[in-house]
Amino acid sequence: MKPAVDSSERLSFTEKLGYGLGDTASNFFFQVFNIFLLYYYTDVFGLAPAAVGLMFMVTKVVDAVSDPLMGIVADRTNTRWGKFRPYLLWGAIPYGVLGYAMFAGPDLSDAGKLVYAYVTYTMMMLAYTVINVPYSALMGVISPNSLERTSVSSFRFICAFSAAWLVGTFVTPLKTILGGGNEALGFKLTMAIFAVISIALFWVTFATTRERVQPKQEKSSLKLDFKAMMGNGPWLALFLAAIFTLMNVAVRNGAIMYYFKYYVGDDGSAIFLIFDKTAVFMSLGLFTMVAGIACTKWLAERFDKRMLLMTLSFLNAVSVAIFYVIPPDQYWLMVIVNCLGTFIVGPTPALVWAMYADTADYGEWKSGRRTTGLVFSALQFAQKLGLAVGAGLSGFILSLFGFVANQAQSDMSINGIRLMFSVFPSALAIAGVIAIYFYPLRDSKVKEIERELKALHGRAEEDAQAAPA
Prior knowledge:
This protein has helices at about 15-45, 50-60, 60-75, 85-100, 110-140, 145-180, 185-210, 220-230, 235-265, 275-295, 295-300, 305-320, 330-345, 350-365, 370-400, 410-420, 425-435, 445-465. It is mostly helical.
């Protein structure tokens, strides 16, 4: 059993929940993008799959610059609200408006639609960077205690996947009800609702959180900051793991709508209340994922985070691969296998984000430089790169296997969709496990670093108080 958290370092339930609601706000868009955006662009907005895949990849050039830049800017921000919290206040409205604009669906020519998609997608990813890099970095300074940060991370992902559950459960029936059979209108009105909720929740996070880790003041140097980050071995391992893991997520989530529409034969008819097969499948899977997330703190107190993450990720990869051999008429077997897999994988997002914060501590302990914003922004870029490459590959795979939107699919096209939903994401998940194998930090070392940094920060505070005015 690991040692309990010092009562003086405990965060209140209100603050943990308030922080978590920020990821609820993010996921009202993030999960829609993961699950529905490729489908929306091909089957609703009328873009070619390969063109969408290319767009997802090309636009990451902007993120390659904007994500680290935002981390650098946030690390150097100093306001009465702290370094990271102000961006939750300032960035919420642009985030909501641009997220809605992506689904506004203007009546344009084919070329005009593609340009519109490029512009709105790129602008939304910039808005996502401006608000989510500081939001993620906030977890690194909300508490100096690693176990308490793991608890905060659990709240974050319970809230995140609660939003994912709402998205997976209600988007398909909402777009049908609000659109009256017009999918484009249904998506547009549904995203307007999500935009308003997201803005409000980011403001709640701003109001309920505080920044407590105050690193010693040091001379600003981009060169030294990047050198410190690139010399951070644990961070490099998680950077690679993030790319593979999010490629896995993007490929599988991007295939869900196609898998159920064209392989399972879901025509949108309700099988429970207002919910069709796709909605019930996603709803139950995300519900069990939230149950898995709720186990994170209990597991993290008893097992090393690295080994736990590797084991759970591998078991999830096995559960995903099984879908390739499930016949299309075995719907409830699909639901059961999916629920087992999502329960197993549930704790992994909270574990990995707590490990991100541990790498920020490690970097300061090793180099003497605290680069929380840069560390989290570069890791967020790795995640966005993984999502973009995965989503881009999905578009290219659909095109390669001969997919034609809203038509009866060939055997080859159906096989491509099945591979996208099972074998391909499973292989990417195993690649992520291999990357995590090279993560060198064990929990005992994290506790040692935590104690030394606490003493260092205490001495720095005493020196600052003793200095003449």
